[in-house]
Structures are given as structure tokens and as C-alpha cells.
Design a protein that fits this description.
- The complex is a heterodimer of chains A (about 100) and B (about 180).
- Chain A has about 100 residues and is mostly helical.
- Chain A is about 75% helix and about 0% strand.
- In chain A, helix 2 runs antiparallel to helix 3.
- Chain B has a single domain, classed as Up-down Bundle (Four Helix Bundle (Hemerythrin (Met), subunit A)).
- Chain B has seven helices and two strands, in the order αααααααββ.
- Chain B has a two-stranded antiparallel ribbon.
- The longest helix of chain B is centred in the middle third of the chain and has 26 residues.
- The radius of gyration of chain B is 23 Å and the shape is extended.
- The mean pLDDT of chain B is about 85.
- Classes of the chains: A mainly alpha (about 100), B mainly alpha (about 180).
- The interface between A and B is large, with 71 and 84 residues.
């Protein structure tokens, strides 16, 4: 019943990843950059799922679970960092945090 | 079936395009939810229904809600939208977009130029995933636990704010 070619899934993953990459590159707002990283992680997980379904193995889905765990941990720490930056610098500009002052 | 997958892919791509072009953070997040839901439908069609459920629960549920809470805490005003418009200015975005599109074109060429696949997608149920997860990959599960624990500790440590003692006579910040 499933006649979707594997290329279609991989192309979708590639396009989504590239959209996330473009957004990381063109944004200066640090929260938007975090969201874009989420989009890229999601696209990578999609590629894993496609490959896992192609070969009928569970490894792709296991890798997706690990990516999911990593994304959850990353977003919590990233948001805490964003809160600190906003309280100290009063801006969300990622360029404002280019000096380390301990 | 095939048409459904293509429609879902189109929805995911359009929603992600809207995410990366919005100026308002909340609008971008709502489009991000749509994008995640579309990817979840794609997972379902690729034969991974358990991952589709996880995508909805964790990505569209937990992570997006976490970001929305932080936006509420930051209490952003209308000026932030104006500033975002200014930052997104006209000429600046062209260079990265062009270079990335060239990379994407190369990637698509490599995917398409290979010999076309003949076999179809196979259904992998949650039982096989669970057996694999707690069989050969059990060390990964333990490492994920350590990662989540350090994530909790790190988020608590970074998110803590310096306490300020407010008193009638004695008002100075204390570390």
C-alpha cells in the first residue's frame, strides 16, 4: 500500500534542514536561532526515520528517540542561557553577547 | 497514499518557511507547531506511528510550550517586532540564502541522481523499537538519563537569579 519513494522522504528532510540552516544564518534574535536549531534537529530525525523504514530496522527510530532526548535537554539549557543573557544585557541580540566578562 | 505524503510534505515546508520569515515570535511558534504536526503525519505514513505520537507529545507539546513560557517571562513588547523587522533587513539575508540554496541543490542532485529505490517502506512497530532500545542500545538509554539529569542541573543553575534583599533601611543586592 505504501508507494512513497525513499527519495521523497530524504528530499523533505534535506529541504527542512536547509530551511533551518538559513534561519540560523539570517536571524539575529537568539530565540529565533534556537527555534531554527530545533527545526534542523527535527529534519535530521526525519532522515533517520526514513532510513529506518527503508531497511525495516528499528535502529532509525531508536536514534530518533535519542535525538528527541538531546533536543529536550538542549532547549532547556538554551532557554536558561537566554534568560540570563536577557537579564544581563537587556536585549536578545546575539551580537551583544560577544564579549566574555566572567 | 503517495499524494497524501506529498501534501503533508508541502504543508511542512510551507509552515517552516513561514516560521523563518515571521517577525513576531508567537506567530513563528504557532507555525512551528503546524510544521511539527505535518512531520508527525509524515512519520505515520512512513510506518513509524509511535514516533509520530512522540513527535506530537514532545516536540509540539513540551518543547514549544517551554519556549512560549520563556517568551512570557521575557515580557517582550511591540518594539521587539519592529527591531526584528529592522534586523531582517533587505540585503543582509541574500548571501546566506543563496549559498544554502546552492548546497541544497547539490544535496537534491545527489539524492536524485542515485539509482531509484525499488522497495517500499516497511512498518516498524513500537515493540521492535523497545526491544532494540533496551537490548543493544541500553548504554544509550543510560547516557540519555545522564544527559537529562545534567540538563536539569544546568538549567536550574543558569536560570537562577540573584536574590535581592528588600528592606526599609538596608537595600543592597546580595550575591
Amino acid at each position: 500500500m505504501n508507494k512513497v519513494p525513499i527519495e521523497a522522504g530524504l528530499i523533505l528532510a534535506g529541504i527542512l534542514f536547509m530551511l533551518g540552516l538559513i534561519s540560523v544564518l539570517i536571524r539575529r534574535n537568539i530565540i529565533f536561532m534556537l527555534i531554527s536549531v530545533e527545526v534542523m534537529l527535527n529534519a535530521a530525525g526525519l532522515a533517520f526515520i526514513v532510513a529506518g523504514s527503508r531497511w525495516g530496522q528499528a535502529d532509525g527510530q531508536v536514534m530518533f528517540i535519542f535525538i528527541l532526548t538531546m533536543a529536550a535537554a538542549e532547549v532547556s539549557v538554551g532557554l536558561a542561557l537566554i534568560l540570563q543573557i536577557y537579564h544581563q544585557l537587556k536585549t536578545l541580540d546575539s551580537d551583544a553577547a560577544n564579549k566574555m566578562k566572567g | 497514499m503517495q499524494l497524501t505524503f506529498y501534501v503533508t510534505s508541502a504543508i511542512a515546508i510551507i509552515a517552516t518557511l513561514m516560521v523563518i520569515t515571521r517577525h513576531n515570535l508567537i506567530h513563528a511558534l504557532l507555525y512551528l507547531v503546524v510544521s511539527f504536526l505535518a512531520v508527525a503525519v509524515a512519520f505515520y505514513m512512513l510506518g513509524a506511528p509511535f514516533m509520530a505520537a512522540l513527535e506530537v507529545i514532545i516536540y509540539a507539546g513540551a518543547i514549544v510550550v517551554l519556549i512560549i513560557f520563556v517568551i512570557m517571562m521575557l515580557n517582550l513588547k511591540q518594539e521587539s517586532v519592529e527591531q526584528e523587522k529592522q534586523w531582517m533587513g533587505d540585503g543582509i539575508i541574500l548571501g546566506p540564502v543563496l549559498l544554502s540554496v546552492v548546497l541544497l541543490a547539490e544535496l537534491l542532485y545527489i539524492i536524485i541522481a542515485g539509482e531509484p529505490s525499488t522497495s517500499n517502506f516497511q512498518m516498524v512497530d513500537a515493540k521492535a523499537v523497545g526491544l532494540s532500545l533496551y537490548g543493544p542500545y541500553v548504554i544509550g538509554v543510560e547516557l540519555s538519563g545522564i544527559l537529562l539529569m545534567s540538563g536539569i542541573v544546568g538549567a536550574y543553575h543558569l536560570g537562577r537569579q540573584k536574590k535581592k534583599i528588600v528592606h526599609r533601611f538596608l537595600e543592597k543586592p546580595v550575591d
